Amino acid sequence: MKKFYKGHVYYHLLVDAIIIGLIFLSIAANAQAENVVFKPWVYVGLFLAAYVIKTVYNILYVKLSYYELKEKEIRCRRGVLFRKETILEYSKIHAINKKQNILHKFFQVAILTIDSGSTNTATTAEITIWERVDVVDKLKAEIAAYQQGKHDAFSSQPSEAPRTKSNKENLYKFTSKLKLVYSLIHTLTALLIFAVSVALVAGTIALLSQLPAFIVSKYVSLEFVLEILIFSLIFALIILLFTFFISFIDYLFKYYDFRLHRTESGLEVSYGFFSRSTNNFELSKIKAVIIRQSLLQRLFGLASINVEVVGYVESSDDNKSNGTLPGALIPLCKKSQVNDFLAKILPEFVPQAPQHKAKKYFPFVSWTLLFTLVPLIIASGACAWLLFNLSVPKEAIIIFVVCALALLFAITCLILIKGGLEYRNSGLSIGDGAVTLYGGGFTKKCVVIQKRNVISLEDVTTPMRKKSGIFSYKVHIFTNAATNVFTLKHLDAALKDNLTACVND
Amino acid sequence: MNLNKLDKRAKGYWLSVNLFVVLIAVIALVIFFLSIDKQTLKAVLLPVAIPSGILLLLLIIFPFIKYHFYSYGFNEKHVVINYGVIFKHRITIPVCQIQDLHIVEGPLMMLFGLSGIIFSTAGSNFTLPAIEKANAKQMVSAIEEYLITRVKEKSNEEVL
Fold first, then answer.
1. Residues of B at the A interface (Cβ-Cβ below 8 Å)?
2. Which of A452, A472, A476, A498 should we substitute to test contact with B (largest number of B Cβ atoms within 10 Å)?
3. 0.80 exceeded by pTM
4. Across the interface, do B123 and A504 touch by the CB < 8 Å criterion?
5. Do residues B85 and B61 share a domain?
């Protein structure tokens, strides 16, 4: 059994001092603002008490935590008050991730997380080891050797520092130019939402201006509304510029030195400046590949590729998914390059063109319209009735009704457009080894799943759709993340048997 | 595959759960109506009372409709669950993909002599609510046996 590295205690001495210090400073500032002033020694005393408790906890955590690599499994025992021993077979490991932030680098330490597909631990990794950075690299290589049954060969080799992979071996380059485009797309999305909101407000004002003049002058001063509109516009533009700047800086550091390498048994994806994350996973553990295209990405002919692997998600700190995006494989590339990239990296996951498309447009909007508009109409009617009975002036009721109608119109348009996009995008293709599902509205999704990873199938229909031979299918796939279901909307009923044949039974 | 209906007591169980919700909603509505003046009450009564009344009525009728559309079945290879009033769902779970089987009983379920079964797979959890206790145990034992046989078959297929 090997103990955790004590360097992590020194790292936490610094980090805890900063965090606890900041908490106490904010408490002190807040107390001063509310005229509740304690003597300085009270703050210092409380700070020291909290700091000492946390430091003692960290020392005990490092002293009491052990790990061991055995012939068939890895064992890890950790915890102070609540002790936990985890035994994980090498064959069950899905992802091995190394995390090192900028302060970790200073102390030459890193965190190794090892993850299996257990649903019970869907939010945290099964095993977390605090070690020296060189030991973490060695551990990664050793676990990979155990997984491939090549440990004897590995242990007979002289121990050497892991080789830094050259730029030539890098399968994808996420250049600053691409990061700039990535940030621009995100900013433009915000701009698009803003433009739609402005159009809605402008539309409502235009409607109001059509009302009799005495109503407008009495209840809504157009000059006042225009002033507010101009102010909002300037404010929104400043926010947009700020968003773009922050977003660009964020992507620049988050995906700093993005590297995608082939290893002996799988793939290694590493990125990050302040917090560098190196993720290793076997090819056989990849459950699905997701190609995403937002509305703007489609306009510019771009796409992003993500991989669904247990334990690899797009988040900075947690290594497990809680509804977050699956891990990035290719953050941004041209749509035309997607198949080339996949053919080079994951040939099993190259998407096939859709063989079957959605049958009708109407099912995409019918129930959504009903479930959205009916409650809104009832609520608006009830409110109008209430205003009428509470003796509110008629002009105000008219304004309310006009606004409610404008809102209903906007929502109807949105549902119809989204339905149209979903109708266009929905599709299915069944190949020998993989199934390709197409779907999504504003964000188009193409999901390639290996048949062996299809866990179960759920079909959904309504009596009317059944008559027309229309079914939706929910494909449940093997992953402990929140995104374990992919829905195919409104396809032919005859496809049920074909899809059922894909389920790994 | 023969499909079975849930135990008839399921209707009583769901109705009790809904009646509990109805009771709380009625108490809240009464307190609200008593706390406002007569003029506001007159204005508010219809817009609040009509939707609330419809909702309460639905809560009472819903268990009977839900029961009508619920059915399940299983054989050596699959477990099938059908449910849904407007949107009809049919779930097909391969027996070999079941990781854990759980029998669940809440206090109200116990009162009605019912149990629920949760089929836990590597992808999602699927629930079969409100079947008779003895039936639930029998079903779990049978699926466990099928599971062992199926896993053996699968490993033989892989060897061949």
1. 40, 42-44, 46-48, 51, 77-78, 84, 86-97, 99, 120-126
2. A476
3. no
4. no
5. no
Question: For position A153, what pLDDT does the model report?
Answer: 67
CA angle (A499 as vertex; A496, A500 as ends), nearest 5: 80
Question: Are A478 and B123 inside 8 Å of each other by CB?
Answer: yes
Say which range, A120-129, A314-323, A428-437, has the weakest mean pLDDT. Answer: A314-323
Q: How confident is the model at residue B97 (pLDDT cuts 50, 70, 90)?
A: confident
Per-residue pLDDT, B81: 94
Domain co-membership, B86 together with B147 = yes
Contacts of A10 (CB under 8 A, 6+ apart): A107
Q: In this structure, what are the phi and psi dihedrals at residue A112, rounded to the nearest 5 degrees?
A: -110, 125
Nearest residue of chain B to residue A460 (CA atoms): B89
Q: Which of B92, B137, B100 is nearest to B115 (CA)?
A: B137
Check whether residue B19 and residue B61 sit in a common domain. yes
- From B5's Cα to the closest Cα of chain A, the distance in A is 19
> Cβ contact (<8 Å) for A460 and B88?
yes
State how far the Cα of A388 lies from the Cα of A128, in Å rounded to an integer: 64
Please say which residue of B67, B86, B102 terminates a domain.
Answer: B67
Residues B82 and B50 in one domain: no
Q: Does A505 touch chain B (CB under 8 A)?
A: yes
| Stronger pLDDT, A435 or A40, i.e. the higher one | A435
| Domain count for chain B | 2
- Whether residue A231 lies within 8 A of chain B, CB to CB, comes out as no
Among A301, A303, A394, A314, smallest CA distance to A341 is for A303
* A451 inside 8 A of chain B by CB: no
> Within 10 A of A416 (CB to CB), how many other CB atoms are there?
15
CATH number of the domain residue B136 falls in: 2.30.29.30
pLDDT classification of A59: cutoffs 50, 70, 90: very high
Highest mean pLDDT among A22-26, A88-92, A476-480, B81-85: B81-85
Q: Which helix (H) or strand (E) holds A454?
A: strand A454-461
Nearest-CB residue to B47 (from A385, A458, A466): A385
pLDDT tens per residue, range B12-25: 999 999 999 889 98
Between chain A and chain B, the number of residue pairs with CB atoms below 8 A apart is 83
Average confidence (pLDDT) over A266-277: 86
pLDDT given at position B114: 92
Give the integer Cα–Cα distance in Å for B63 and A148: 54
Kindly list the distances between the CA atom of residue B126 and the CA atoms of A8, A102, A288, A476, B123, in Å, as whole numbers in the listed order. Answer: 42, 44, 22, 11, 10
- Domain extent at residue B35: 4-67
B79 and B13 in one domain? Answer: no
pLDDT in tens, A244-259: 788 778 878 888 888 8
CA pair distance A184, A173, nearest whole angstrom: 18
| One domain for residues B80 and B107 | yes
CB A148 within 8 A of CB A127: no
Strand order across the beta sheet in which B71-74 lies: A485-492, A470-477, A454-461, B88-94, B78-83, B71-74, B4-5
| CB count in 10 Å sphere of residue B67 | 21
- Residue B3 one-letter amino acid: L
The verdict on a CB contact (< 8 Å) between B78 and A389 is no
Interchain pair B78, A505: CB under 8 A: yes
Residue with the bigger pLDDT between A204 and A315: it is A204
